[in-house]
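Help needed: design a sequence for this.
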């Protein structure tokens, strides 16, 4: 399904819900037919003639944004310069999940690869895992003029190191990709995720004064963008404050995770516990950097003041 934001800029909505393995894409129906992200599924892309897409830009390398790259065989393909490795360097790609920390954080060897066991819908043409693609790169601030429509790539790391948002200054439309306004707040559970970067990236997006916000996994929001971004960041900042409160007394990572510091209300699967711990670690890294917390060794922490 297509949602017109203006005569040229459209949101491609997946057939099912815009949740993994699907995500929203942006289609720019102008002189140069352009698509941002490739995870809406084959059924959704029948609305836009995939063979006519000339330029495919990726917000970042995660599977739910890249699984449909093969639909766009005639397109120039581009990703942010900070994430070219995800399509060229398999070792770095494997490292990015952080799964090499699994045994240390969970206490038992990682069971069968999640990527091998998941069931995917028929219109998702690839499976999670490293995919080699010839990619060109774009940079922070780079302007794309694709006919009457122009927009800029905005480097917004934190979720992943080469995560980009896209801003259409004439229409004040922001595509915030996986800074997705989820009620659970931002996700920063990857090896190369960084919570300081999340804070700065959300502030950077707020400064754009967008009037319409589209993200990868939610509906279109018209108006009150500043408030939405503020509330979204607040979910994570509140989590950081709760961590800090706990650390009045020495506390282990296990204790912090046990107190449900991240991923509240999600089922306690080993993957959810792993990502919760990874995200709590990102807060601890930031708090240590700000000298508010010190590491006592062996994943035990305490507040310094
Ligand atoms: Zn992502």
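Sure. Designed sequence:
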């Amino acid at each position: 399904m297509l949602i017109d934001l203006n005569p040229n800029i459209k949101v491609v909505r997946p057939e099912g819900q815009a949740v993994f393995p699907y995500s929203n894409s942006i289609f720019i129906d102008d002189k140069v037919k352009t698509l941002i992200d490739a995870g809406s599924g084959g059924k959704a892309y029948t609305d836009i003639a995939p063979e006519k897409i000339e330029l495919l830009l990726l917000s970042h390398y995660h599977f739910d944004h890249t699984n449909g790259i093969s639909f766009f065989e005639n397109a120039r393909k581009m990703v942010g310069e900070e994430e070219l490795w995800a399509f060229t360097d398999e070792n770095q790609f494997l490292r990015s999940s952080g799964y090499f920390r699994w045994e240390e954080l969970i206490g038992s060897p990682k069971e069968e690869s999640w990527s091998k066991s998941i069931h995917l819908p028929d219109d998702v043409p690839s499976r999670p895992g490293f995919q080699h693609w010839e990619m060109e790169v774009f940079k922070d601030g780079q302007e794309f003029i694709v006919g009457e429509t122009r927009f800029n790539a905005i480097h917004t790391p934190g979720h992943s190191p080469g995560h980009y948002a896209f801003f259409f200054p004439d229409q004040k439309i922001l595509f915030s990709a996986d800074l997705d306004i989820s009620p659970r707040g931002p996700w920063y559970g990857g090896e190369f995720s960084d919570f300081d970067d999340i804070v700065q990236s959300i502030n950077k997006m707020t400064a754009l004064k967008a009037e319409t916000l589209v993200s990868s996994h939610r509906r279109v929001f018209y108006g009150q963008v500043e408030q939405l971004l503020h509330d979204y960041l607040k979910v994570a900042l509140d989590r950081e404050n709760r961590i800090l409160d706990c650390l009045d007394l020495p506390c282990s990572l296990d204790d912090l995770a046990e107190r449900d510091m991240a991923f509240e209300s999600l089922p306690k699967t080993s993957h959810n516990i792993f990502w919760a711990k990874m995200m709590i670690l990102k807060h601890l890294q930031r708090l240590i950097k700000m000298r508010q917390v010190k590491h006592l060794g062996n994943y035990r922490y305490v507040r310094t003041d």
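The chain has nine helices and 16 strands.
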